[in-house]
TrEMBL record:
Positions with a binding annotation for ATP: G25, A26, G27, K28, G29, T30, R141, K187
Record key words, sorted: ATP-binding, Cytoplasm, Kinase, Nucleotide-binding, Nucleus, Pyrimidine biosynthesis, Transferase
Cofactor annotation: Mg(2+)
Residue positions binding a ribonucleoside 5'-phosphate: R51, K73, I74, V75, G100, F101, P102, R103, R148, R159
Source organism: Nicrophorus vespilloides
Binding site for CMP: N107
Similarity section: Belongs to the adenylate kinase family. UMP-CMP kinase subfamily.
PROSITE patterns recorded: ADENYLATE_KINASE
Domain notes: Consists of three domains, a large central CORE domain and two small peripheral domains, NMPbind and LID, which undergo movements during catalysis. The LID domain closes over the site of phosphoryl transfer upon ATP binding. Assembling and dissambling the active center during each catalytic cycle provides an effective means to prevent ATP hydrolysis.
Cofactor: record remark: Binds 1 Mg(2+) ion per monomer.
SUPFAM superfamilies: P-loop containing nucleoside triphosphate hydrolases (SSF52540)
The name this protein goes by in its record: UMP-CMP kinase
Molecular function terms from GO: kinase activity
Length: 209
């Protein structure tokens, strides 16, 4: 193999990541599914990975995770990062949507320490949505039987506080380095996805992927 080909081979192996952030109920999971169907990414929801870990019989962290989730607090990054790294390793693919992470400074520091150098962060997809609409969506999701222990008004207030005080500054950090693509997430699922599509098509035509 000549050196140009070898370089290409190496760059092909680098895992590519899009972080997906936004308030609770902004539509991250819903839109991620559509991105998977249309753009061939693997969806890794940090919240889902934590809920799965919590369910495992005998999990060392089950109780801790449940308490953090109900209280709307952010689980210590080493737990979340280990789950993400394992899921990436086991996926057999190389393009990931990492949904709901990094959502505070501890998450960001842990990611930078453990993973950042090994992957290419393509951009941060930010679903911007008012707290009123987010609340309505989470409460309807709870009423429709989401089974989530945090889709109730009391947990939601805590989740929003965490979002405003801890996650927003992370989004601002990425805005400062021009990595954020913002989408108005208050519209219908279909309309939001039109804007999401535009963000991914832009990336593809910029040759970033
Ligand atoms: N969570 C966490 N670290 C993460 C992602 C999620 O600690 O990196 C916890 C946190 O308590 C959060 C909950 O899991 O409130 C639910 O997160 P999820 O992303 O599933 O909720 P969403 O924001 O999509 O409604
Ligand atoms: Mg979610």
């Amino acid at each position: 193999m000549n050196s140009a080909k070898r370089l290409l081979k190496i760059s092909e192996m680098v895992h590519k990541v899009v972080f997906v952030l936004g308030g609770p109920g902004a539509g991250k999971g819903t839109q991620c599914q559509k991105i998977v169907d249309n753009f061939g990414f693997k969806h890794l929801s940090a919240g889902d990975l934590l809920r799965e870990e919590r369910q495992k019989p005998g999990s060392e962290y089950g109780e801790l995770i449940e308490t953090y989730i109900r209280e709307g607090k952010i689980v210590p990054v080493d737990i979340t990062c280990s789950l993400l790294e394992r899921a990436m390793r086991e996926s057999g693919t190389d393009k990931f949507l990492i949904d709901g992470f990094p959502r505070n400074q501890d998450n960001l520091d842990g990611w930078n320490r453990r993973v950042a150098e090994k992957v290419k962060l393509l951009f941060v997809l930010f679903f911007d949505c008012s707290l009123e609409i987010c609340t309505d969506r989470c409460l309807s999701r709870g009423a429709a039987g989401s089974g989530r222990s945090d889709d109730n008004l009391e947990s939601l207030k805590k989740r929003f506080n965490t979002y405003v005080n801890e996650t927003k500054p992370i989004i601002e950090h990425y805005e400062q380095i021009n990595l954020v693509k913002r989408v108005d997430a208050s519209k219908t699922q279909e309309d939001v996805f039109e804007d999401v599509k535009a963000a991914f098509v832009d990336m593809e035509s910029a040759g970033d992927n």
